[in-house]
Design brief:
Largest sheet: 7 strands, antiparallel
CATH architecture of the largest domain: Sandwich
CATH class of the largest domain: Mainly Beta
Structural class: mainly beta
Distance between the termini: 41 Å
Radius of gyration: 21 Å
Number of domains: 2
């Protein structure tokens, strides 16, 4: 079903009112709509409201930072399954007005053309993490090879799955992770409707697990992720450049140099299970789900 979202006006002074009207939405319980900086990840709305109606008009003050493009996005059933995106609205500072800047058209994600620096497909993968003696993936074996799972019973969870970094990770390289899910779907852990998601993950040596100050960027997750909450079977690929704009820290993004330091001092890498707000807090399953690792490679720039 096509969903039409129209945002207006298309240019507005900061502090003014702007809104979005939508028509043709499925009107399902849990549908929601958010305001975003154009081009930002779905996990980072400025503000959101429930959108459980087939048509509606939502108006709000333009309290977001000026001289940038914004857009509205409609999602289904408490998930990040996007079913509609509005046109762009340029918010400007009237005292320092600038012409609207076009948002670049996303280019197709390039496939790796350079050589493989590390091939970790057959590595030993360690569930966890274990922090101060507490195992956050209880009931799992000491390590996995080739296949992650089945999930522990009674319905338990797997949070992190990592392997030691063979060395520094290459800035401007990329990580390619291909896997096959069997006997899913996975279930979120925070609430019944939380999205089960899988992210790439890197952790720096010397992390205190506090996530505070400089340690905000001692752990990083890919902004690109795969949704597994309604998927029982299938093969998937995460193909993520090793650039700061494609990764997020514990609480925020980071300058280029912080990301470069993370890669130069990488301790472990792998993937985590969670949702958009808690990327490493785990997913549950009671159906014997497994993740078969088809490829996990780090490519040079």
């Amino acid at each position: 079903m096509a969903v039409s979202l129209v945002a207006s006006p298309t240019i507005i002074n900061v502090g003014g009112l702007f809104g979005v009207t939508w028509n043709g939405a499925p009107a399902e319980v849990g549908d929601w709509i958010g305001l975003y900086t154009a081009g930002s990840p779905d996990s980072s709305p400025w503000v959101w409201v429930m959108g459980e109606a087939p048509s509606y008009t939502w108006t709000l003050p333009a309290t977001v930072p000026p001289n940038a493009n914004y857009e509205f996005r409609l999602f289904s059933k408490y998930s990040f399954n996007r079913i509609g995106t509005s046109n762009h609205v340029w918010v400007q500072d009237p005292n320092y007005a600038t012409s609207p800047v076009p948002v670049p058209v996303p280019q197709p994600d390039p496939q790796p053309t350079s050589g493989v620096l590390y091939d970790l497909t057959g590595a030993m993968w360690y569930p966890g993490p274990i922090i101060n003696g507490v195992d956050y993936s209880p009931g799992t074996p000491d390590y996995y090879v080739g296949t992650i799972g089945p999930w522990p019973h009674p319905p338990g969870e797997i949070d992190y799955v990592t392997t030691p970094a063979p060395g520094a990770l290459p800035l401007y390289g990329r990580i390619v992770f291909r896997f096959r899910l069997k006997n899913g779907p996975l279930l979120g852990t925070v609430e019944p409707y939380s999205s089960a998601m899988i992210f790439l993950h890197i952790q720096r040596r010397g992390d205190t697990w506090s996530g505070q100050g400089q340690y905000d960027w001692y752990r990083a997750w890919s902004l690109d992720c795969t949704f597994l909450i309604n998927v029982p079977e299938g093969a998937f690929t995460l193909n993520v450049p090793l650039t700061a704009d494609q990764w997020g820290g514990v609480m925020s993004g980071a300058p280029h140099q912080d990301f470069a330091n993370l890669l130069a001092n990488a301790d472990v890498l792998g993937f985590t299970f969670g949702d958009a707000q808690s990327k490493g807090h785990g997913n549950q399953n009671s159906t014997g789900a497994t993740i078969e690792i088809l490829e996990f490679k780090v490519y040079s720039p």
